[in-house]
Amino acid sequence: MEENNLLLQVQDLKVYFYNEEGQELKAVDGVGFYLRKGETIALVGESGCGKSVTSLAILRLVDSDGKIQGGKILLEGRDLLSLSEREMREVRGRDISMIFQEPSSALNPVYTIGDQIIEAIILHQKLSYRQARKTAEELLRLVGIPEARKRLDEYPHELSGGMKQRAMIAMALSCHPKVLIADEPTTSLDVTIQAQILELIEELQRQLNMGVILITHDLGVVAGMAERVVVMYAGKVVEEGSRWDIFHHPHHPYTWGLLHSIPRLDVKQEKLAIIPGVVPDPLNFPSGCRFRNRCPLEDEVCLTEPSREEIENQHYVYCHHHSQIEVLETRGFSQ
Amino acid sequence: MNNVPLLQVEDLKKYFPIKAGVFRRTVGWVKAVDGVSFEVFPEETLGIVGESGCGKSTLGMTVMRLYEPTAGSIFFQGEDISSLPASQLKGVRRNIQMIFQDPFTSLDPRMHIGSIVEEGMKVHRVASPPEVRRRALDLLEKVGLGAEYFSRYPHEFSGGQRQRIGIARALALNPRLVVADEPVSSLDVSVRSQILNLLKDLKREYQLTYIFISHDLAVVRQICDRVIVMYLGKVVEIADGDTFFSSPSHPYSVALTSAVPVPDPDYEVKRIILSGDVPSPINPPEGCRFHTRCPVAQEVCSQVEPALEEVGENQWVACHFPGSLSWERA
């Protein structure tokens, strides 16, 4: 890996939450991955796998009942976890920005779209209000909002869902961030609007050469956009590789199950494959491999935690039995 | 499948008034469902697809008479139920049941799941109390929840399990028709396929007929025999599933199917990106309602509303230029 290309490195990140009884919930437990300049990676997993918490931790926005208990987040070599809150504020928005799943709740309803974008610009750049307003207008045009000047003076409720998401992207891009984190950016949108927004993010990324971390549960979106994929389960990374590695040669049983259980538009499956059971409760994660109680390949070895193994060039998997993955092709998840 | 429709909907309309001012006068109408006709045949699964605001959920609710239709008729097993008084609806409702999207709000948090499943059977007095109990246990077993769960409360269950409870409740009265409104949309991927498989198995076992309302075309592809596409309160295409997914004909259907991301990095499709948003159903465009976003619209499209016409075997399309937009796999 060419070090000078490395933009963001997350190493052994641990984020724990504490409930009222003082119990520890290990929402993110030793997660690591990297992002190169101009690259898109996807963090994939089901609800509760820790993908969103990871992204909030990168911005140090984990809420008060959670704590970052360990690890490093290196942005071009600088550890964000060692910065003061004031220094961190400089990073947010300027170096790393984020777009959220629900544009209606991420935008402030009592300020106009323009005010919210201008605020971000003035905060990080030495521009006058008039210059900032002009920049904001250009940004709205860049993200494809028609009648940009008029829209600046409108409130979020006057915009449709797709337009709100565009406005939020404009805000996120206002200071030319190096890293854009997109947390389920299209989940609340209709497919035809989703296609517009994904196209927009890809286009802007090319233009601005940003690194993008796409957080999603939608493997269809991942296949179309991400160069590399990090699959998470129950607070841990289970597999990491290029999108071809992950989609064509998955080596973790969870990745395999996930890929086989999604309904596909291009194939009619008589019976969908299923992963039996449910995601474990974070208070009672199984010891050893956290997937073991749903896994058809489970045996005693799985009681110890699997370590990271490189099975091909930069394709990593955390499973004791990854060499037996072909068994699933004939047997599936039925035990 | 036989040829006598179980449900027949003719020119159904549902308008919601928009009230404004001190006197709450009606100042306009949201035409959520605006002249929809279709048939549902016994033991088929009919998918109703479209984006938010197209009227698919309103259609489902109106068919069940949970909304009063503004106009049109609904024939269930030959009987017009669209104007049936509430007192006589009870018998019909026994035969049409619903599965809701959100398993967190559709179950009463103060009832244990046993009584949730039993309630309908008690209201309709279908059997003696011990028989009702036996049947409820049986149904819970069928949907994959054992007897030990019988007196637990909804909050003790995950989303997927709650959806199973909702399914058991819907089946308790042995309905002919089940209207499922986005039944798997709120579920995680690995759980979603469990529920879809369950719905398929139950259909076979109880000879059920489904109306399956969903925005997720990949899910519809897996479960539906026929598909209805709606746009702004109107039907734009009705076709059988295989035909629809291999050669959609209405430009909107083509754009919709091409926009669905496929989980395969080698799958490339010429994505047709529609510009703009869906117009407001308060003032829908004149002529064809899709013409403002249609890549192949011509002058006539803004003037004359196209009628639903047969373009091929089992494929009906409301478009002046059906089949003029297509997508190829690269």
Q: What Rg of chain A is obtained from the alpha carbons, in whole angstroms?
A: 21 Å
Work out the number of β strands of chain B: 12
| Tally of contiguous helical segments of chain B | 9
Class derived from helix and strand content of chain A: alpha/beta
- Tell me the Rg of chain B in angstroms: 21 Å
Shape of chain A: globular
Integer average pLDDT of chain A: 90
Can you write the helix and strand succession of chain B as a string?
EEEHEEHEHHHEHEHEEHHEE
Task: Please outline the helices and strands.
The complex is a heterodimer of chains A (335) and B (330).
Chain A: E1 6-18, E2 24-36, E3 40-44, H1 51-58, E4 66-75, E5 78-79, H2 85-91, E6 96-99, H3 103-106, H4 113-124, H5 129-142, H6 148-152, H7 161-173, E7 179-183, H8 191-208, E8 211-216, H9 219-225, E9 228-233, E10 236-242, H10 243-248, H11 253-261, E11 309-312, E12 315-317, H12 326-331
Parallel strand pairs in A: 3-8, 3-9, 6-7, 7-8
Antiparallel strand pairs in A: 1-2, 1-4, 4-5, 9-10, 10-12, 11-12
Chain B: E1 7-20, E2 25-40, E3 45-49, H1 56-63, E4 71-76, E5 79-80, H2 86-95, E6 96-99, H3 113-123, H4 129-142, H5 159-171, E7 177-181, H6 189-206, E8 209-214, H7 217-223, E9 226-231, E10 234-240, H8 241-246, H9 251-259, E11 309-312, E12 315-317
Parallel strand pairs in B: 3-8, 3-9, 6-7, 7-8
Antiparallel strand pairs in B: 1-2, 1-4, 4-5, 9-10, 10-12, 11-12
Helix pairs in contact in B: 3-4, 3-5, 4-5, 5-6
Please provide a written account of the structure.
The complex is a heterodimer of chains A (335) and B (330). By secondary structure, chain A is of the alpha/beta class. Chain A contains 12 helices and 12 strands. Chain A has helices spanning 51-58, 85-91, 103-106, 113-124, 129-142, 148-152, 161-173, 191-208, 219-225, 243-248, 253-261, 326-331, and strands at 6-18, 24-36, 40-44, 66-75, 78-79, 96-99, 179-183, 211-216, 228-233, 236-242, 309-312, 315-317. In chain A, the strands form 2 sheets. Chain A has an 8-stranded mixed β-sheet with strand order 6-7-8-3-9-10-12-11, with helices on both faces. In chain A, strands 2-1-4-5 form a 4-stranded antiparallel β-sheet. In chain A, strand 7 (179-183), helix 8 and strand 8 form a beta-alpha-beta unit. In chain A, helix 4 packs parallel to helix 7 (161-173) and helix 5 crosses helix 7 (161-173). Chain A starts with 5 loop residues before the first strand and ends with a helix. The mean pLDDT of chain A is 90. By secondary structure, chain B is an alpha/beta fold. Chain B contains 9 helices and 12 strands. An 8-stranded mixed β-sheet of chain B has the order 6-7-8-3-9-10-12-11, with helices on both faces. Chain B starts with 6 loop residues before the first strand and ends in a 13-residue tail after the last strand. The mean pLDDT of chain B is 91. Chains A and B meet through helix 8, helix 9, helix 10 and helix 11 of A and helix 6, helix 7, helix 8 and helix 9 of B.
